[in-house]
């Protein structure tokens, strides 16, 4: 067999080996076990590591050269701007009725540690043993270290600071948004956030508590010699934004063009890009957009780019159609912002959309809905229609073909009943250790009840989505009804900033009867215990400090360890065409497969799964709860679900309710996935 590049062999096992020259001129060797004796496997793994190695090396080299291209004063201004922005949000958070401010201080401390690690060039998304030891030496307990590990995974996956928003920032600063520039801007943002969290951890200090301006008191802790920080406001707050990062269409450069055909009550010569900050600000204030604004801003700038950034008065129906068609012609993985400096029509000629990389209809509808919201805001002034009660621009008026089912080549593979039985044999349900040893066999006999215990069981027997179950309120659990049930509806837990939300479609709202296994294992007693603690959330640990992250919190922290448990005992299902592995939503996919038989009525299946009904019979059937009563219909649903759903928990014994301290709940700890 030809020699395997960048590898060596010792005692029959293969190792990846690369030499690294540091910036001080010294050479070191990086050695990574490939964990195989098979030459072909070693060749494949070495090739993957070599590609990753080269990518990291390019990033690090670019990082050390960037000071030559970015003005240090600019970097300082960006740092201080982000620091101020984050710190103001953190101070507000302390005054929003947090039950335990000292617990929040500890959380800020862990976030600071995670950002400190994430901002270092070449950092992976998992804590190394050395980093864990340093965190422990700094006073972090095991729980805090696991929290840092979860944060690090999220920050390194770019969920914290997206490439699109950084590219727009670079272009607004007059910089070419290369990977190196974006990487440096991300580094500055991560540094600023680390500092903001570090300062927020001093919020309970006596001098901060007694200060009139607590934000300034915190900032004073990092000043040197009493010199105040210079503050550069973020570009998004500038009422007169800089020139857009995309060229203006020469065909519409004259502001007088189309004045006679203007669709609006008043002709406005201001270009669309100039009102984007206003749209973002008013949309947030009106409660339309409650999450981070980066995605909405990207869509608005894409619309301006596609349409040539016209004067507002020159927009018409053809521009809406052009934007919709542009979305159809952009591949799923394409990032428009990287081409903003080129004319759209020129870029369009280079884009190739295939069935494999086409954007989904739902994604296109989402972007059009963002523009529909923007129109509603501008219709109060700049885009006010000439005729009352009409739409001058209708972004919601497009009809798409019937939504195609997900291709078998890309769909998420379901779990099997055997996988679920394997999961429910884990120490979480049979007896394990403390909050970070829940999945450690032989760690102890304790069985604690929290989201880690109940969420997988509820997902398996109800076939609901993760956020539907994670976002349940205690008053949405009806144990004392004739047929005990859960009520799935929009609520404040799934929403943000006090806005109720959580369901993709109003038709998802439904009542789900509780399977007899759920009741046998003591779910009623758990609900009673949570109510006795005074919580409104069924799983309050997922909503500590009003984070409103629910299912995402569970998936990012606890579920990964549970999935590892399954992977240690049997292969995880994988779609060989796409490489997608089974995840939490795959539990719902398994539930749907239980009813994939000609004997299962389609209407019952749709109601149980929360799918939309179709046809005249379905519409008439929807009145059955009114004609025959809710109890009768729920009893029918319960019998239907019990008939077709495999029992995966018959081996489990009910245990008295035993609750961990709330900040220790749902923490599962090891194992991390290893080879079978």
Q: What is the number of helical segments per DSSP (H or I, 4+ residues)?
A: 26
The biggest beta sheet is recorded as:
3 strands, antiparallel
What's the pLDDT, averaged over the residues?
A: 76
The coarse silhouette is: globular
Cα gyration radius (Å) = 28 Å
What is the CATH architecture term of the largest domain?
A: Orthogonal Bundle
CATH class placement of the largest domain: Mainly Alpha
Q: Topology of this protein?
A:
Blueprint: E1 7-10, E2 13-21, E3 27-33, H1 39-65, H2 72-94, H3 101-118, H4 129-137, H5 142-156, H6 163-172, H7 179-200, H8 206-209, H9 214-220, H10 272-285, H11 294-307, H12 317-328, H13 344-348, H14 361-378, H15 417-423, H16 427-430, H17 451-462, H18 466-470, E4 477-478, E5 485-488, E6 491-496, E7 499-501, E8 510-513, H19 516-520, H20 523-532, H21 550-569, H22 585-594, H23 602-609, H24 616-621, H25 624-628, H26 630-644
Antiparallel strand pairs: 1-2, 2-3, 4-5, 5-8, 6-7
Account of the protein in words:
By secondary structure, this protein is mainly α. The chain folds into 4 domains: 7-65, no CATH class; 69-232, no CATH class; 250-378, no CATH class; 417-664, hpI Integrase, Chain A (Orthogonal Bundle), CATH 1.10.443. The protein contains 26 helices and 8 strands. It has helices spanning 39-65, 72-94, 101-118, 129-137, 142-156, 163-172, 179-200, 206-209, 214-220, 272-285, 294-307, 317-328, 344-348, 361-378, 417-423, 427-430, 451-462, 466-470, 516-520, 523-532, 550-569, 585-594, 602-609, 616-621, 624-628, 630-644, and strands at residues 7-10, 13-21, 27-33, 477-478, 485-488, 491-496, 499-501, 510-513. The chain has a 3-stranded antiparallel β-sheet, with helices on one face. A hairpin with a 6-residue loop joins strand 4 (477-478) and strand 5. Helix 15 crosses helix 21 (550-569) and helix 17 (451-462) runs parallel beside helix 22 (585-594). Mean pLDDT is 76; it is low at 224-242, 252-258, 403-410, 503-507 and 615-621.
